[in-house]
Design a protein that fits this description.
heterotrimer; A alpha/beta; B alpha/beta; C alpha/beta; A: alpha/beta; seven-stranded parallel sheet; seven-stranded mixed sheet; 3 helices; 14 strands; about 50% strand; globular; B: alpha/beta; Rossmann fold; 2 domains; six-stranded mixed sheet; four-stranded antiparallel sheet; 8 helices
């Protein structure tokens, strides 16, 4: 499965786009499977993914270097057995700020949603990430998972996480989690005990933290572009 | 001990058991074999009193008493035990506490004194040995984080603690590797007594190599189409269900 | 009564629904500056207290009632409430328990609250508040021997005005929120606790609030001060009779812990939740509870078991100012029938190396809605702060709902916050498993619920853990049809 960039690539069959007042609507027809990468620099700020029966999508959102980002990503799982996965990575420094809101709505039985968001914030960067999962009546056997992890590298940075759950159905399995913190001392120590310098160790760890998101990008060209952006940003951040 | 006559049962409006008969006496081990969809699990659930299933015709008598209208817990207290095919997980509820509750419910029913956690711990320790379950069992939650094999062994531990008169083992062998199977079979054999009876519901003949049944019945289309001794199981294994059915 | 399925599991007659026939002074309904003055006069308060009330009242007039809670209720008519009701036989300076109105004594006995020192609940001192006044405080003299002051708030205003002046409003200023302002203007009575330095309070302290008069609101005010190196464990309990109209309960609780001090505050709340069919008549419970861990190495823990009010709005919070101070919040919130709960906590980390733990267990059944709202704020100054939050919801039946709205705001990189949440249900399969082992549905439910709430119950003092366990079972008998 290759990742489609919503703006540039030709869309696979079964996927239709519609521009509305509230943003860009991406409709996936029955059993259609397509993944997307959203780069915040592109101007369209709101996305809504509509999934019919059996449709599957993984959406990657990438923010690295934009001064201000304000975006909402929604997924409506209208058909049963549909699957929505979101992976987000934000690497911000300076006084860049971001407000990102991702909402997964389970509206049919046997639907699955996954959300993983990671941020690396340095200098005076600010990230406000809201992840919401709602399970409506009738959406039995909903299975959802959210995880939000923020890595703060300097004193001026700030991370706000809002993991919300709205459950109106008892037949669900939902878990979510959020962690914020600095780099793990024990991990740093381990690398240094194997001969790496402190800065090399830090770089390795922070890069590894971000890589979990980037590794889903199968298009090598896109991936290496993103990776070098992240690498440059992180090197700058870690010089402090 | 158990007498089922012309039993018809259905779920969601669909009839699964269509005239099922069975007689089980104390001291006997009966094996019920059949292809998927024949009604094996339905039989187990109906005997245990699962309300999703509706008995439309026929009777179930346990020790002479008609139990078709009894609640699950009442049947359990009378001495009927079901080892589930898919034992459910109950996180937060401790294994030892759960078993003690069940044990005491039975003690109370039989007008005997209930036991406290310390007394029960001793009883449990002995029973855990029967299926080689480690002592940390007591500190874990019911089936939570248990492997498939451990869940099945847990069912046998419970059977050992509650000492039922009639144990219905619903595909206890499914999903087990040969080593786990041997341990479970050994456990079952240890619990055989002249005053209790066991019904083994199974798809494969494997288990029956270790737990030798007195009677083997073939279940197909919701009723028993053939009965025989242990050798019937081997015949099934060789010929498969289709040939037997014709 | 045999209970056979989840649906039949929750419906117990509220056992405290009776009303006590006793002569009561009741202020006519309505709220104006005059009402405030009257209340102060009826209580014989010194001028500073009246000043405080008036300032709060005037401020309240400028405020708007908050409506952002995810709950729906008919608007409260503040003019249709009586702001003061007290038993006629004024217990102002009771020398002994014998002077307490026998009818009152009987009421509290019926509620299982021991006023008589002989029938003590394993050495727990009780301050009993009936409608707007404290009617009795047991063990007062004995506690004074240790330097511990445990009396009604009104008595503290009279006897220990300096302490009251210094600390009242220091944790919850009247400007804080709408209900805090209202409470500061019309608060009736409550408990006052002062533990001097280096003292471990020799017994558990308890307050018991009982609303008896229909149409009255209850606005109690509690202040607990724990000086250096001291410890106190305090338990709050409350009940109210069944009425047709809803009752308003807007309380303020302030806790102050100095260096190395620890305050443990537990609540087992069993209000009338309203008619199971219609939801009418329950208590509107709006409470501002906050603890200031002022001193270094101080600790404040909130433990609560909430089993019902028509609407609950409360967020016991901790302001962790002292370095290495600790804040804890353990909660089981049970909503059934038509109840709505909007509850949660706030942990504000200001000092260095502060630590907070939040364990919230929500159980919803019937058509109830259970909301958790949490805020963990790690300010820039809170170097080395740590937070762990676990937020679990258990849904029983298919018509209830659970919503969680946590916010984690971190401004200090050298800190760690971890938040975990999960949603689960009691399935028919789980119940059937118990039943096939000879255990009745009721007992099965109790076992599963207790397994779910274990981490919170273990924090409750002594026999209240047992009480909480039983209470959960009682409250859940016979749920949705």
């Amino acid at each position: 499965m290759s990742l489609f960039n919503l703006k540039k690539d030709k869309l696979p069959s079964g996927v239709t786009l519609k521009q509305s007042d509230s943003g860009l609507e991406v409709h996936l027809a029955r059993s259609v499977s397509a993944d997307f990468i959203l780069e915040a620099a592109e101007g369209v700020k709101n996305y809504r993914f509509i999934l019919e029966e059996g449709a599957r999508t993984e959406v990657l959102a990438f923010t690295c270097g934009e001064t201000q980002t304000l975006a909402t990503i929604e997924a409506d799982m209208l058909g049963k057995d549909s699957y929505f996965s979101f992976k987000g990575l934000s690497v911000l420094d300076d006084s860049q700020n971001q407000r990102l809101k991702v909402t997964a709505r389970h509206k049919a039985p046997h639907t699955t949603s996954r959300q993983l968001f990671k941020s690396v914030l340095s200098e005076a960067a600010f990230s406000d990430f809201e992840t919401a999962v709602s399970v409506e009546k009738g959406a039995s056997r909903a299975d959802s998972n959210q995880l939000c992890r923020n890595l703060l590298l300097s004193e001026g940075a700030r991370a706000v996480s809002r993991p919300l759950l709205n459950i109106d159905n008892d037949d669900v399995s939902c878990t979510h989690g959020a962690t914020t913190g600095p780099m793990e001392e024990s991990e740093l120590f381990y690398l240094r005990s194997r001969g790496l310098t402190e800065s090399a160790a830090k770089e390795l760890l922070v890069y590894g933290f971000a890589e979990e998101i980037l590794e889903v990008v199968q298009d090598t060209e896109v991936r290496s572009r993103l990776e070098s952006l992240v690498r440059a940003k992180l090197q700058k951040a870690l010089k402090r | 001990m158990l007498e089922i006559q012309a039993l018809h049962a259905r779920i969601d409006g669909k009839e699964i058991l269509k005239g099922f008969d069975l007689k089980v006496k104390a001291g006997e081990v009966h094996a019920i074999m059949g292809p998927n969809g024949s009604g094996k699990s339905t039989l187990a659930k109906v005997l245990a009193g699962d309300s999703h299933y509706e008995v439309t015709k026929g009777s179930i008598r346990f020790e002479g008493k008609d139990i078709a209208s009894l609640e699950p817990e009442d049947r359990a207290l009378l001495g009927i035990f079901l080892a589930f095919q898919y034992p459910v997980e109950i996180p937060g509820v401790n294994n030892a506490s759960f078993l003690r509750m069940a044990y005491n419910a039975k003690q109370k029913f039989l007008k005997r004194t209930e036991v406290d956690p310390i007394e029960f711990d001793e009883i449990l320790r002995e029973k855990l040995k029967i299926v080689k379950m480690s002592a940390d069992f007591s500190s874990r939650s019911v089936n939570h984080g248990f492997s498939g094999g451990e869940k099945k062994r847990n069912e046998i531990v419970q059977m050992a603690v509650l000492e039922p008169k009639l144990a219905v083992l619903d595909e206890t062998d499914s999903g087990l590797d040969i080593d786990a199977l041997k341990i479970v079979a050994q456990g079952i054999n240890t619990l055989r007594r002249p005053d209790n009876a066991i019904i083994l519901i199974t798809h494969y003949q494997r288990l029956l190599d270790y737990v030798k049944p007195d009677f083997v019945h073939v279940l197909s289309g919701g009723r028993i189409i053939r009965s025989g001794g242990g050798e019937l199981a081997r015949e099934l294994e060789k010929k498969g269900y289709e040939l037997i059915q014709s | 009564m045999s209970v056979n399925s989840i649906e039949q599991f929750t419906k117990k007659e509220y056992p405290y629904g009776f009303q006590t026939a006793i002569e009561t002074d009741v202020l006519p309904k309505g709220l104006s500056e005059d009402t405030v003055r009257q209340i102060s006069k009826l209580k014989n308060e010194p001028p500073f207290m009246l000043e405080f009330r008036l300032k709060a009242y005037r401020y309240w007039l400028t405020m708007k009632e908050p409506h952002w809670a995810n709950a729906h209720y008919p608007a409260i008519d503040y003019q249709n409430i009586s702001y003061y009701a007290a038993p006629k036989k004024k217990p102002a300076s009771l020398k002994s328990m014998d002077e307490v109105d026998p009818e009152l004594k009987r009421t509290f006995e019926k509620l299982g609250i021991p006023l008589m020192e002989q029938k003590k609940l394993a050495g727990v001192a009780v301050d009993a508040i009936f409608d707007s006044v404290s009617v009795a405080t047991s063990y007062k003299a004995k506690l004074l021997e240790h330097g511990v002051i445990f009396c009604s708030f009104s008595e503290a205003v009279e006897k220990y005005p300096d302490l009251v002046k210094r600390y009242m409003g220091s944790v919850v200023p009247y400007t804080d929120n709408f209900f805090a302002a209202l409470n500061s203007a019309v608060f009736s009575d409550g408990s006052f606790v002062y533990i001097p330095k280096n003292t471990r309070c020799p017994m558990e302290l308890s307050s018991y609030f009982r609303i008896n008069t229909e149409g009255s609101g209850q606005f109690e005010r509690t202040l607990i001060i724990c000086e250096d190196n001291s410890f106190v464990s305090y338990l709050e309990g409350c009940t109210a009779p069944k009425f047709d109209s809803n009752q308003l309960h807007a309380a303020v609780v302030e806790l102050v812990a100095l260096d190395h001090a620890e305050i443990k505050y537990s609540t087992v709340q069993n209000w009338y939740a309203g008619d199971p069919e219609t939801g009418k008549g329950g208590i509107y419970n709006f409470v501002t509870k906050r603890g200031k861990a002022l001193g270094n190495d101080s600790k404040i823990s909130w433990t609560q078991v909430e089993t019902g009010s028509a609407i609950t709005w409360k967020y016991p919070s901790c302001i962790l100012m002292g370095d290495r101070s600790v804040g804890e919040f353990y909660s089981v919130a049970l909503t059934n029938h038509h109840q709505q709960a909007d509850t949660g906590t706030k942990m504000i980390h200001i000092g260095k190396n502060t630590k907070s733990t939040i364990i919230s267990k929500g159980i919803s059944a019937g058509q109830a809605v259970n909301n958790y709202r949490g805020l963990v704020e790690i300010r820039k100054s809170a170097v080395g702060a740590r937070n762990f939050t676990q937020c679990d919801s258990l849904l029983i039946g298919s018509t209830c709902a659970a919503h969680t709205f946590p916010t984690i705001d971190v401004r200090q990189p050298n800190s760690k916050t971890e938040h975990e949440a999960s949603t689960s249900r009691i399935s028919d399969d789980q119940l059937f498993y118990f039943r096939q082992r000879g255990i009745r549905t009721e007992d099965a439910m109790n076992a599963i619920l207790n397994g779910f709430c274990k981490e919170v119950f273990v924090e409750l003092p002594g026999e209240f853990a047992v009480e909480a366990t039983q209470l959960l079972g009682l409250k859940l008998e016979g749920s949705v049809g």
